[in-house]
Amino acid sequence: MRSVGDCLHVGGGARAAVLRRCRGACEKCGLEWPWALYLFRVDEKGPGASSNLVALCGGCSSDRAASFAPLLTERTLRERMRAANNRRSGAVPLTAARRRKLIAGRGGCCEICGISGGERQLEVHHRLGIIRGGDDSDANLLVLCFACHHHLQPCAAGCGRWARKPASVCRRCQDQSRLASWTG
Questions:
Q1: pLDDT tens digit string along 77-91?
Q2: pLDDT (tens digit, 9 = 90+) per residue, 147-175?
Q3: Do 124 and 99 form a contact (C-beta atoms < 8 A)?
Q4: What is the C-alpha to C-alpha distance for residues 56 and 54, in angstroms, rounded to an integer?
Q5: If you write DSSP's letter for every residue of the chain in order, what string do you get?
Q6: Do residues 39 and 10 touch, judged by C-beta distance below 8 A?
Q7: What is the rounded distance in angstroms from the CA atom of residue 177 to the CA atom of residue 1?
Q8: Distance (Å, rounded) from C-alpha 74 to C-alpha 55?
């Protein structure tokens, strides 16, 4: 294992592009172990773009004294929490393929405003957030357009529904409050 010297800063997009290109194998000897691969610049003066990066194993990079970065980074806290929540509930992880299938299965449109995915980008939202113990089960997922997803927040009245910003309470709680003021 290499010691951490000068750290090469590589963006997530460049790291992902190199991973797709090398398919988790050393680009010199072909060792298929992505956790033991490091990224090096081909041209030291060049940018940290994927076209200027090479993925090498420890043996193939032993003669290099240049700065490097691991090909695979440590998972984020959110990713670790999501995995733990899914293990606890038995939910299947939300992959890109499952995300596409979920969007198609829910009609290919936003569940709030009804706009189709052809008109606006659709995203998957967790009803109960990952940080609060939510998982990737179908019951905990909503298909929303990016506009509705950006403007969504939990209802301040605590009913469990969602309110669209800038309102702090959902439409149902607003209607109940109006009815109560008319009859009361």
A1: 888 899 999 999 999
A2: 888 787 777 887 777 777 778 888 888 88
A3: yes
A4: 6
A5: -----SBPP--HHHHHHHHHHHTTB-TTT--B-GGGEEEEESSTTS-SSGGGEEEEETTTTTT--S-BEESSPPPPHHHHHHHHHHHHHTPPP--HHHHHHHHHHTTTB-TTT--BTTTS-EEEEESS-GGGT--S-GGGEEEEEHHHHHTEEE-TT-SS-EEETT-SS-HHHHHHHHHHHHH-
A6: yes
A7: 64
A8: 17
Residues contacting 140, CB < 8 A, separation 6+? 91, 126, 127, 128, 134
Residue type present at position 68: F
Model confidence at 131: pLDDT above 50: yes
Q: How far apart are CA 102 and CA 137, in angstroms?
A: 11
Q: Maximum distance among all alpha carbons in the chain?
A: 82
The C-alpha atoms of residue 57 and residue 82 are separated, in whole angstroms, by 30
**pLDDT for res 2:** 43
* Structure-block tokens of residue 130: 């990952």
Q: Where are the domains of the chain?
A: 12-70, 77-150, 153-184
- Residue among 138, 141, 140, 144 at smallest CA distance from 113: 144
Q: What is the pTM of this model?
A: 0.53
pLDDT digits (tens, 9 = 90+) for 34-75: 778 889 988 888 877 888 899 998 888 888 888 888 888 777
